[in-house]
Amino acid sequence: MNILIIGYGKMGKIIEQLAKERNHNIVGIIDKDDNLEQVEAEDIDVAIEFTTPNSAFDNIKTCLKKGIPIVVGTTGWYDRLDEVKSLVEKYNGSLIYATNFAIGVYIFRQLNSFLAKKMENFPNYTPSITEIHHIHKLDAPSGTAITLANELIKENSNISSWQLNEISHPWELKVTSIREGEEFGTHIITYESSEDVIEIKHKAKSRRGLALGAVVGAEFISTKKGIYSLNDMFE
After folding, report:
1. 137 among known catalytic residues
2. 220 φ, ψ (degrees, to nearest 5)
């Protein structure tokens, strides 16, 4: 498979390495000073995009216009998701996106939903989410934390919304964002009562798991049409 990498930071370099390990070809790399509009699409089977929230939408739009299936690992652009869905339909395009492509995070999300449903019957426990990332991460809370919060709310009728760092009502879920050092990404879901604490946690040891999931996502989306999520890929 011929892969175009969009964004050649730390993630882009690991994606390049893992793609080659899985016998794929890297036919192009677009970094911050390069122009995606000038790329010829004929020899590209799929693009993998890890850039910044400010540039992700334009990269998605350009790939869809050129007929290039795209994997989007960038977060912070979901306020334009409806526009992206319209573009996928308009250009009969192919796109898979996720707040986190790591297989471990996918499993953690299933545990989160299961626990949220169980805890619905125990309103004396107050849920909260804490996410910790490196100081270079631009969006807060993380896209993964938002996904976890929304999935918790979906399964637990005692909670109806989430708020960043501070809450004012018992039906709100507190999401705390911490930026420190070179932390790869930690997400902690806590249920606390006056008697005890229940906690589940996912901690990334490197960027490799995230990159591997993105390459698997590229293998998945390269022969499909439409817009897909991580649930579609794993299930």
Report:
1. yes
2. -70, -45
